[in-house]
Amino acid sequence: MPASVIGVLALQGDVVEHVAALERAGARTLEVRTPGDLERVEALVIPGGESTTVIRLLDRFGLTEPVKARVRAGMPLWGTCMGLIVAAADVAGLLQPTLGLLDVTVRRNAFGRQVDSAEVPLAIPALGPAPFPAIFIRAPWIERAGPEVAVLAERDGRIVMVRQGNLLGTSFHPELTGDDRVHAYFLAIVEAGRAVSAA
Ligand code: GLN
Description:
The protein is of the alpha/beta class. The strands form three sheets. The protein has a seven-stranded mixed beta sheet. Strands 5-6-9 form a three-stranded mixed beta sheet.
């Protein structure tokens, strides 16, 4: 497997924006649509989009079990917005299937209609002192975070960014800003994992 290729799940959603941001942050990328594509990547980003659609497409493309197996074997995964929902343990108030990888319960479309879409300066201490321009689009929030989950950011007291080992989740869309610090942060997680497995 060639090192340092970051996959972007490309079944539906804002794929090209993630590819561009990852490449600006210094990564090589591959759009992932098949189990064969997945074998060629070192980490996977699930973009924003529509979670019910993507869960169905993951099954149809034979990717559900391979993605779960890779993540359980240590592959870093980052979900933004829809991707966070897809990676979550469960969805509050809905019997929506998920991959059950990140030990959080999310609530879909949680920030309410009036503020469906907003750009909010978000304090994310892990990224340094400058606030991050976080774009929320019909975003979920995290209602429950398990004991292994570190909270990296909150908006109005609601959890919107978490990390659980090699897994990262953001309610917002870093790929839609020119600020690539979350992409660089994810690449650092990938890099650190590689150093451990090479040791
Ligand atoms: N509301 C969408 C969902 O529940 C997520 C929105 C997004 O990814 N921008 O799937």
